[in-house]
Amino acid sequence: MTLPLVVIPTYDERDNIGPIIARVRAAVPEASVLVVDDGSPDGTGELADELAARDDAVHVLHRTGKQGLGAAYLAAFDWALERRFNPIVQLDADGSHLPEELPRLLARLEATDASQPTPDLVVGSRWVDGGSVENWPAYRQAISRLGSAYAHLMLRLPARDATAGYRVFRADALRRIDLADVHTRGYGFQVDVLWHAHRAGLVVVEEPVRFVERERGASKMTVGIAVEAAARVTWWAIRAPWTRRRTDAGSAGRSDRQVQRVGEQPRPGGGEAAE
Questions:
Q1: Which of 131, 186, 237, 250 would disulfide-bridge 126, Cβ 3.0–4.6 Å?
Q2: CATH code for 1-93?
Q3: What is the distance between the alpha carbons of residues 141 and 147, in angstroms, rounded to a whole number?
Q4: What b/e string do you get for 45-70 counting C-beta neighbours within 10 Å, with b at 16 or more?
């Protein structure tokens, strides 16, 4: 029996939390929702409590102070695994991740083609065929594309959209990742977890999604955050060359088995698809 859980971290998202929960519940009625609020000054947590009081499928995890996106997700993963939810979904509160696309991501996790490995993690990707972004300025697109490409190159990550935050994990996959070794608490968390998933040998697939810029509230992404994330990627690559050697020598060709994009078929002989 599957018990999907959609995790929505919040900080000052009072205008968005009600509509996004309603859209999730309409798109996937069987899914529960966990709001992880970092003590939002605008009362997001209190509003989430009111919504939870009216819907048994809505839960709220309150944390004191703004501790970062990564810390919110790690706390949510622990909460979800303890309660045997499966699968576990990451979703932004601002509407940029469309809940209406979630059924397709969940279906991708349940691939039944015997010729393909069963996915452990589905990444909602903006940068594969069929993916797109709306209402993003050119500099934001450039930051995202360059950041993903840099992480892909430096860490040999098995996904083109390494910074994507719309993800669906099998519960067992999260158990196989060494989450205790994920120390990033900011927006570099997405790359950090993908790197750990790759090192754990998880099968990662990318599914195209449409990313829509928020209509309400202010984005928390800045150039400084992107630079900090790039610095972390560089440091990880420098201090862990053994990881790359192990991946190349012990898992030659695993990229094709680990990540498949929509429309691709496994190729004999291994080797990464040309970018």
A1: 131
A2: 3.90.550.10
A3: 10
A4: bebbeebbeeeebbbbbebeeebbbb
**CB of 197 within 8 A of CB of 204?**
yes
Asked if residue 78 lies in contact with residue 228, where contact means CB atoms within 8 angstroms, the answer is no
User: What's the residue count for the chain?
Assistant: 275
Distance, in Å, from the CA atom of 22 to the CA atom of 35, rounded to the nearest integer, reads 13
Q: pLDDT for 156-208, tens place per residue?
A: 888 889 989 999 999 999 999 999 999 887 778 999 999 999 999 999 999 99
Residue stretches of the chain with pLDDT short of 70: 1, 112, 214-230, 235-275
Phi, psi of 74, deg, nearest 5 = -65, -40
- The three-state secondary structure class of 262 is coil
Residue-by-residue DSSP string for 132-159? EEES--HHHHHHHHHHHHHHHHHH--S-
Residue closest to 32 by CA, chosen among 5, 51, 53? 5
Q: Across-strand partners of 9?
A: 36
DSSP state of 128: S
pLDDT at 271 (0 to 100): 35
Residue 205, amino acid: V
User: Which residue spans of the chain are classified as CATH 3.90.550.10?
Assistant: 1-93
